[in-house]
Specification:
With 401 residues, this protein is α/β, with parallel strands linked by helices. The protein has helices spanning 2-10, 23-38, 61-66, 84-105, 117-128, 147-157, 166-174, 188-195, 201-208, 231-243, 261-274, 286-296, 306-309, 341-352, 354-360, 372-382, and strands spanning 14-20, 42-49, 73-75, 109-113, 133-136, 160-163, 182-184, 215-220, 248-253, 279-282, 299-302, 317-321, 334-337. The protein folds into two domains: 12-186 and 371-400, Glycogen Phosphorylase B (Rossmann fold), CATH 3.40.50.2000; 199-360, Rossmann fold, CATH 3.40.50.2000.
């Protein structure tokens, strides 16, 4: 009887709770979630929060269910306002809900991605409840957003780390994390590009009910959250620059629940209403249509990380506006510019230049070649988490530099 009980403990199925707060984040996690679900050694739990549960952002938790996943818990953070105070109130509301959810689920490991405040708040709760955390996409820098300290704080609360480049792995170690627990697995988005069967041009046009033109641009712009109320001014300048273009169709995706993101969303709606012949807007294109869009457009405009990570794999250029993504690793396909009308327009002109397009066709791509999801699941299955909560600070020997 003792031996049977011992073997049962040794072969215990590990409960992995994946937390997702937005459609964009879920799209990155999709293949990892699928691999966890297929595993005989892991039990998948899904905790949904944030924008997934908001009418304003399309109740995107329904897509998770349509993909065949069971949602084990929903924590409504009540995203009533996108002001600073409103977001703080959402964080506190969320933390209360996360306590009840995690006490009920009792996961062996929490799996989280990125740097958003929803993930920061659930990481705090898991830390206090003594639940080990596996963190994806740590070590990155976004110096124009208040997500920057959230990301590094989540790193310090986490125990297993999965980074998208070797440079980011080194930065996580620089933060004092044990090197043997930090793994460079590449960017999750590259898995989606490699494994997703994308839509043909005609299929894509039908899916968005919009015909592409001679030139086409995908626009994804978010507020720079460390700047004081600049969202409206910067986006207005972008719209003025876009209006100068001829024979160009525009596909807008709306913002996340960032500070004053509603200002940008309203401006998008107003612009599309006045320019329905050349512009369309979507709360979320979803994983398939967003990647398919990159396959068929001439470039990406805005300040989204997808312009730095996914776009280069389609050999298209990105006009990266302002400081939101400052500090990230960038390829030659990224054209950085200030948020003035003149700078944005010059950058777009460069994007359309044939010599620029030729230059980026053979550029080096720094975010891996796919396989991230399988690597992550293999590591979380095989890694020992006994005693992992008591971390030692790993000191780098600076004297050897």
């Amino acid at each position: 009887m003792f031996q049977a009980a011992f073997l049962k403990r040794m072969n215990k199925i590990r409960k992995i709770c994946v937390v997702t707060g937005s459609r964009a984040e879920y799209d990155l996690l999709y293949l990892t979630i699928s691999e966890i679900k297929k595993s005989n050694n892991l039990k998948l739990q899904i905790l949904v929060t944030g924008m997934h549960l908001s009418d304003e952002f399309g109740l995107t938790y329904k897509q998770i269910e349509q993909d065949g996943f069971n949602i084990d818990s929903k924590v409504d953070m009540e995203l009533i306002s996108d002001t600073e105070i409103g977001i703080i109130e959402s964080i506190t509301k969320g933390m209360s809900g996360f306590v009840k959810a995690l006490e009920g689920l009792k996961p062996d490991l929490l799996l989280v991605l990125g740097d958003r405040y929803e993930i920061f708040s659930v990481a705090i709760v898991a830390t206090i409840l003594r639940i080990p955390i596996a963190h994806l996409h740590g070590g990155e820098k976004t110096e124009g957003a208040f997500d920057e300290p959230f990301r590094h704080s989540i790193t310090k609360m986490s125990h297993l780390h999965f980074t998208s480049t070797d440079e980011y792995r080194k930065r996580v170690i620089q933060l004092g994390e044990e090197p043997s627990n930090v793994f460079n697995v590449g960017a999750l988005a590259i898995d989606n590009i490699k494994k997703q069967k994308l839509l043909s041009k005609k299929e894509f046009e039908n899916s968005i009910e919009f015909k592409l033109n001679k030139q086409n641009l995908l626009i994804t712009f978010h507020p720079v959250t460390l700047e004081n109320r600049t969202a409206g001014e910067q986006f207005s300048n972008l719209l003025i620059a876009l209006d100068k273009l001829k024979n160009t169709h525009l596909i807008f995706t709306k913002t996340n629940s960032d500070t004053y993101g509603s200002i940008i969303n309203q401006m998008i709606d107003n612009y599309v209403e006045k320019n329905s012949d050349k512009a369309r807007a979507y709360n979320s294109l979803g994983r398939l249509r967003y990647l398919s869009a990159m396959q068929h457009v001439n470039g990406l405009i805005g300040n989204s990380s997808s312009g730095l990570i996914e776009a280069p794999y389609f050999n298209i250029g990105t006009v990266n506006i302002g400081d939101r993504q400052r500090g990230r690793i960038m390829t030659d396909s990224v054209i950085n510019c200030d948020s003035t009308v003149e700078d944005i327009f010059k950058a777009i002109q460069k994007l359309f230049d044939s010599s620029f397009a030729k230059k980026i066709n053979n550029m080096e791509k720094p975010y891996g070649n796919g396989g991230s999801a399988k690597s992550i699941v293999k590591i979380i299955t095989s890694s020992s988490i006994n005693g992992i909560l008591k971390k030692q600070f790993f000191d780098i020997n600076f004297c050897n530099e």
